[in-house]
Structures are given as C-alpha cells and as structure tokens.
Write a structure and sequence with these properties.
Layout (H helix, E strand, L loop, with lengths): L5 E4 L1 H5 L8 H12 L3 E5 L4 H11 L4 E4 L4 E4 L2 E5 L4 H14 L3 E4 L3 E4 L10 H4 L10 E4 L3 H7 L5 E5 L7 H10 L3 E4 L5 E6 L4 H11 L7 E5 L5 H6 L2 E5 L4 H6 L2 E3 L6 H9 L2
Parallel strand pairs: 1-2, 1-12, 2-3, 7-8, 12-13, 13-14
Antiparallel strand pairs: 3-4, 4-5, 6-7, 6-9, 9-11, 10-11
C-alpha cells in the first residue's frame, strides 16, 4: 500500500444511526481498511469510556479521541490529556448559576452535574451516549461546594444543555466568551460544549497524525456539528454529513450522505477502496 490514511470520525449524527447502531457494511469496510494499513479513530465529544465502547463496534485498533479532543488514547494508553484550569471551571460554574442552567462536567468515566440530571440523560437513546459497557459509569452531584472542590481536578470538558429555551444560549455563550481559559463550541442547537482554551478535536487529530507520521493531505475527517469544524479544516479531506449544519458544510471539502444513509461508508468506499 502506497498511501496510508488517518480516518477520524465523529460519532453522533455522523457514524451512528439515530438508534445508536452502526451498519454492518460500515463496520466491515472500516475493518478492511485497517487490515490494509489505514488508521481509524473515533473523534467525539463523548467521554472516553463511552467513546471507547462505540469504537469497539467498528474497530479493534483502539484509537479514541474523546471529550472533544481533551483526551486521546491508543489501546487505553493515554497520548493526550488536557483538563480545564481551576479559574475556568469556577468562572463557568458561576455563569451557569447566574443563568440558572444545568451544567455537566466530564472526566473519562464520570458525569458531574449541578441541579438534577435532565430528561436528556434519562431517555434510552441519549442515555446510551453515556454507556461504558461495564456498568462502572458514575453520576456525581457537585451542587455541594465541597463535592465541587474535591472533584474539579478531574474535569476535562463540560456541556450546558438548555432543553426548554435554547434561545438563551446566545447570552450564555457571550458570557462564557468573556471568561479566560475556555473554548466554546456546539454540537447541537440546544447545547454549548466547553473545552480548555488550547483543546479541540483538531489538536488531537494532529497529535495522532504525528504519532503515525501521516501528513495532513492523507487525513480524512467526518463530522456534522460545530465542534467538528476544527478537524474538518485541518484535514486534507474534510467531509461533512448531509445532515450537518450549514456552517459545517461551508468548511468541508466534500459532503456525503446522511448518517442514517451510511454517508461515512459511501464516501470511504468511493474515495479509498
């Protein structure tokens, strides 16, 4: 094989169907490409353990970019970890108190929450996004100041969900943008993703590509949300899903079919195999 590609795919709205499954033909093609020497990695906003389980559905190589690029590992060996700085955590916490919105911090295997876990994490489809496959996932309340202080060193990234009135997220985002040490993106119309300022999926893709000495022109990335834009722009071949938002499509080199119609499979089958 003359050209080895690094292929990095978002999960939700990209690789997975809405019912959280991956088609057999997508799985089989990815494994064939890996057998041919290409490198495949999940690249997601999910926490590491959840992302890892999805990765195992399609690949045995163990490449995972999680927490929107704040954490990455190869076969459980950590190659990147960027935590939120204390002042950024405290500023974010204070802003969410001001707007009276629930806030969720993630480690590799725990969800730390203010208020109560909303319905978003209670229905079956969305709860599966937190599934770690071995029942060791934990929910930890940080409403209490001592619990907040005790656990903040674990926080890799955070998410704010406005289930009832997403319009208020514009003001929330403006407030967060005034804080230092964070980057604010979105993966859905009703959320804001909060990352360390020097962290995103692009950073993790770059580190993985250097690990394997793969140049940018042989990187393929797939995504559908604002949090995918950095890695789509960095890759030689950035591919947006047909169901992606317009600002994502605008930065992509190619647009493939929707996640429900196996767009990742269709593009890779034509482009590589």
């Amino acid at each position: 094989m003359n050209k080895k590609y690094l292929i990095c795919s978002d999960i939700d709205g990209t690789l997975l169907h809405q019912d959280q499954t991956v088609s057999e033909k997508t799985r089989d093609l990815i494994q064939k490409l890996e057998n041919d020497g290409h490198i495949f990695s999940i690249s997601t906003g999910r926490m590491y353990r959840s992302a890892r389980e999805v990765g195992h559905k399609v690949s045995q190589s163990g490449h995972v970019i999680a927490s929107n690029g704040s954490y990455a590992a190869i076969r459980d060996e950590e190659i990147l970890k960027t935590t939120l700085e204390e002042h950024a955590i405290r500023d974010t916490y204070a802003i969410m108190r001001e707007f009276n919105l629930p806030l969720f911090f993630f480690s590799t295997n725990s969800l730390f929450y203010t208020k109560e876990p909303p319905a978003f994490f209670q229905n079956l489809a969305d709860k599966s996004r937190l599934d770690t496959g071995h029942n060791s996932f934990s929910l930890v309340s940080i409403n209490d100041k001592d619990a907040f202080d005790e656990n903040m060193h674990q926080f890799l990234n955070a998410i704010v969900v406005a289930e009832e009135d997403a319009s208020q997220l514009t003001d929330v985002r403006n407030a967060l943008n005034e804080a230092s040490g964070i980057r604010v993106l979105s993966s859905h119309h009703n959320n804001l993703e909060i990352l360390p300022a020097n962290s995103d999926k692009k950073t993790a893709v770059e580190i993985l590509s250097k690990h394997y000495n793969i140049p940018r022109e042989r990187i393929i990335t797939f995504g559908d949300g604002e949090n995918d834009i950095g890695m789509l722009q960095y890759a030689g071949t950035g591919v947006a899903m047909a169901n992606a938002s317009d600002n994502v499509k605008a930065v992509a080199n190619h647009i493939t079919d929707t996640n429900e119609a196996d767009g990742v499979y269709k593009f890779l089958k034509e482009f590589i195999s």
